[in-house]
Amino acid sequence: MSVQRQLEQAERLCQQRSVRFTPTRRHVFTLLAEHKGAVSAYELLDRLKLLEPNAKPPTVYRALDFLLSQGFVHKVESLNAFLFCDHFAQQHPMQLLICDSCDLVIELHDEAINQAFNQQAEQHGFTITNQTIEAHGHCERCRKR
């Protein structure tokens, strides 16, 4: 799906949810959608300054908090980076494979992994409020080098 169509879909969802999709939030959304892979907040800030010269770190972090809350992006905790979610229109399980050589991040949506993880949590009397499953290793391209 094109970035423009993703932006239109996000705008519709924001209208349905009665949340404001401000110009800055749109800019950060678009920058993430155009970027392939995970990107740090400061890399986003550098790009955002081309569109909004007065942008500061809090500007980006507020926009990222909003995009995270709406499910438009995922935080890659171990890289302290953000990844655009192509499947933001619906709730979905999410697991990340992260290459330690090239920083490639692959988003998985395996319901079986999600269910097994939740079952284990329940068996231990644990209630999950926020879940990020990340696995580090080496992608096929880097293993062949």
TrEMBL record:
List, alphabetically, the CDD domains matched: Fur_like
Superkingdom field? Bacteria
Q: Which spans of this chain does the record mark as coiled coil?
A: none
Primary location: cytoplasm
Family matches, as InterPro entries:
FUR, Fur_C, WH-like_DNA-bd_sf, WH_DNA-bd_sf
Q: SUPFAM superfamilies recorded for this chain?
A: Winged helix' DNA-binding domain (SSF46785)
The alphabetical list of record keywords is: Cytoplasm, DNA-binding, Iron, Metal-binding, Repressor, Transcription, Transcription regulation, Zinc
Protein localization: Cytoplasm
A Pfam family annotated for this UniProt entry: FUR
Q: How would you summarize the oligomeric state and partners of this protein? A: Homodimer.
What PANTHER family is this protein classified in?
ZINC UPTAKE REGULATION PROTEIN
Under the heading NCBIfam families, the entry gives: PRK11639.1 (NF008646)
What the record says about family reads: Belongs to the Fur family.
- What is the protein name for this chain? Ferric uptake regulation protein
Source species of the chain: Zobellella aerophila
**Name of the gene encoding the protein in the UniProt record:** zur
